[in-house]
Amino acid sequence: MWTSNRFPALWLLPALLPVILMTVYPIGHALWTSLHEVMILFPGEPFVGLKNYQRVVASNYFGDALRNSLVFTLIAAPSVVILGTLIALFLRRRFFGCEVVRSVVLLPWVLPGAISAVLWVWVFHPSFGILNGILRDLGLIDTSVPWLTNPQTALLAVAAAHVWTQIPFAVILLMAALSAINAETLEAAAIDCRNPAKRFRYIVFPEIKAMIVLLLVYNALTAFTSYDLVYAMTGGGPGTATTLLSFQIWRESFSMYDFGAGSAVAFIVVVISAVLIAAITKTLPSDLFGSS
Amino acid sequence: MPGRLHPILTFTFAALILLFTGGPVLLSLYGSLVPDRVLLSPDRSILTEGPNFESYRYVFTGQLPDSYLQESANRAMISDAARQVPGALVNSSVNALAAMILNLILGAPAAFVFARYLFPGKKLSFLYLILSPLVPAVALVTPIYMMLEWLGLVGTQIGIILVHTARALPFTVLILSVFFRKIPTEVFEAAELDHCSRFQAFWRIALPLALPSVGATGLFAFMLSYSEYMFAMILSGDAGTRPVSVVMAALARNTDVSWSLLNTGIFIAIVPTLVLVVLVWRFVVEGLIGSAVKG
Question: In chain A, what are the domains?
Answer without folding.
Answer: 19-283 (1.10.3720.10)
